[in-house]
Amino acid sequence: MTSGSEPRHVAHESVEERLSAMFDSAEEKIAEEIIADHDLHEMKPAGKPDDEEPLPSMSEQIAEQLGGVRGLVESSVPVLAFVLLNVLLGESVAGLEKRTALLWAIIGSVGSALAIGAVRLARRQPVRHAVNGLFGIALGAWLAWRSGDAKDFYLPGILLTFGQAAVLLVSVAFRKPLIGYAWGIMANKGKQDWFGNGRLFRTFQWLTVLWAVSLTTRAGIQAVLYAMDKANALGIVRILVSWPIYAATFAFTVWAIHRVTSAQRRDTAVA
Questions:
Q1: Of 106, 122, 148, which one is at a domain's C-terminal end?
Q2: Are 157 and 140 in contact (CB under 8 A)?
Q3: Angle between helices 98-122 and 68-88 (to 10 degrees)
């Protein structure tokens, strides 16, 4: 059959096919332009592991909770300033009257705390740790100035630590361990689904007791020194003893939880 002699219906169908192909091509181009203009993309099905943000590592959790090395240093500077100024300006060294030395120690402590907060604000950095520290420093400074005794500078911290330990023990008694809630917020995206996990629940129970013991130890050492009127020793203990105990307890807690959750993931994978 020569060209141009095809049946009428064949030529007609070829034109329709060509028109259909042209319209399909135009629709695809329009769709691509819309996707590009509005930055649309294919959504992945919810619940897949790829959609989940990775949980923070052990070191990241510790650094966040403690404020990092910088947070530890910044929280210790006001206390160190109080101790040094109270000792160096006191009667045994510079010979200033007790209340005068206490005044300068308070000014140095509160001033350093304010300076740390101001620097963080100027650099647009988080001020949570600085604000928390400033509140405690200001309250301790007010108590010390009112009583005229440097040891009262440390009283709020001692009472607060004992109170935290008591709250933790109460949560264990009511089978609502606070360490479990803290883990849910910090490392489980706010989900508190560990209640249905017997092994995790028991882990959080004894870890909460461990934290109560740790806090009681820290506060107990300081309370003994407070009763003995050892104001300067109180400051040294707070810097050189309290923080290491806190850091070690937190690190052990993260390790213990990671050990349990990892073991359960392995058991689930095998099953």
A1: 148
A2: yes
A3: 160
**Residues 210, 233 within the same domain:** yes
On whether residue 114 sits in a domain, the answer given is: yes
In this structure, are 154 and 112 located in the same domain? no
Q: What is the pLDDT of residues 124-157, one digit of tens each?
A: 876 666 666 778 889 999 999 999 999 999 999 9
- Which residues fall within 8 angstroms of residue 206, CB to CB, at 6 or more apart? none
Q: Which residues of 15-52 are buried (b: 16+ CB within 10 A; e: fewer)?
A: eeeeeeeeeeeeeeeeeeeeeeeeeeeeeeeeeeeeee
CA-wise closest residue to 128 among 67, 193, 214, 70: 67
- 161 and 265 assigned to the same domain: yes
**Residue 200 is part of which domain span?**
150-271
Task: Convert the pLDDT of each residue in 163-212 to its tens digit.
Answer: 999 999 999 999 999 999 988 887 777 888 888 889 999 999 999 999 99
pTM: 0.69
Q: Which of 106, 129, 148 is the last residue of a domain?
A: 148
Position 30 pLDDT exceeds 80: no
Q: What are the tens digits of pLDDT across the range 48-74?
A: 444 444 545 544 454 455 455 566 677
Contact 187, 55 (CB under 8 A): yes
Q: Which two tokens stand for residue 52?
A: 């989940």
